[in-house]
């Protein structure tokens, strides 16, 4: 029988927070598992471990807050198993790309921006509080974030802007794929008298109804 996770968002937040506590009490732990561009080929697992490391409490809070706010929305649409796979793979890919630009990096930002990218395609008009108090459609906020990151690439500030942009780009591509899958589903079953939202969500999660 196929096993399906109920949710992975909160376990991810808990695990990442625990890892940060370990970082706080053991400074050598961070150096051991962060993404060191010179050691990627020798220690490929750091492409995964760096996702769960953070530089400071604010870095951790910001990423986990976004994951808490937006993760459940995407998880509900694609299912927890697919969400977890996407989160890890996008974090790996964003980190790998960033390794060509930074000697060392850490954080879940690439994976976080990837899930934002998916939601920009699937829920472009979702209202978010930009800078915590300005109501803004998600697609507009995404453009602003991308511009800020592009400026950060031109004028480096110590932030992993390349990882942010890579993650968002991967998310946009995956969002387009999901939207086409949904469109194909609707066309395939257009003869049904009533195509319910639950049908679409189930197809996105499992590929079947």
Task: Using brief descriptors, characterize the structure shown.
209 residues; mainly alpha; two-stranded antiparallel ribbon; 9 helices
Structural features, described:
There is one protein chain. The protein is mainly alpha-helical and 209 residues long. 66% of the residues lie in helices and 6% in strands. A two-stranded antiparallel sheet has the order 1-2.
| Residue fraction in strands | 5-15%
- Looking at how many chains there are and whether they match, the oligomeric state comes to single chain
Helix content: 55-70%
- Strand arrangement within the widest β-sheet reads 1-2
Record field, number of beta strands: 4
Largest sheet: 2 strands, antiparallel
By secondary-structure content and strand pairing, the structural class works out as mainly alpha
Which helices and strands appear, and what pairs or packs with what?
Layout: H1 9-25, H2 27-33, E1 35-36, H3 46-49, H4 57-78, H5 80-98, E2 104-105, H6 109-122, E3 127-130, E4 134-137, H7 138-154, H8 161-188, H9 197-206
Antiparallel strand pairs: 1-2, 3-4
Helix pairs in contact: 1-2, 1-4, 4-5, 4-6, 5-6, 5-8, 6-8, 7-8
Structure at a glance:
The chain is mainly α and 209 residues long.
């Amino acid at each position: 029988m196929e096993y399906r996770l109920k949710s992975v968002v909160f376990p991810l937040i808990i695990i990442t927070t625990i890892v940060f506590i370990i970082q706080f009490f053991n400074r050598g732990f961070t150096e051991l598992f962060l993404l060191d561009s010179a050691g990627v080929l020798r220690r490929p697992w750091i492409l995964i471990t760096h996702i769960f490391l953070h530089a400071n409490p604010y870095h951790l809070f910001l990423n986990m807050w976004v994951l808490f706010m937006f993760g459940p929305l995407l998880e509900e649409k694609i299912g927890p198993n697919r969400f977890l796979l996407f989160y890890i793979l996008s974090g790996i890919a964003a980190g790998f790309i960033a390794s060509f630009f930074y000697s060392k990096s850490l954080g879940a930002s690439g994976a976080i921006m990837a899930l934002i990218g998916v939601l920009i395609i699937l829920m472009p008009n979702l209202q978010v509080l930009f800078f915590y108090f300005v109501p803004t459609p998600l697609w507009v906020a995404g453009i602003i974030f991308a511009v800020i990151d592009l400026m950060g690439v031109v004028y480096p500030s110590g932030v992993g802007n390349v990882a942010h942009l890579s993650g968002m780009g991967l998310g946009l591509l995956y969002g387009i794929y999901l939207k086409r899958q949904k469109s194909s589903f609707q066309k395939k079953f257009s003869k049904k008298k009533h195509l319910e939202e639950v049908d679409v969500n189930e197809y996105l999660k499992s590929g079947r109804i």
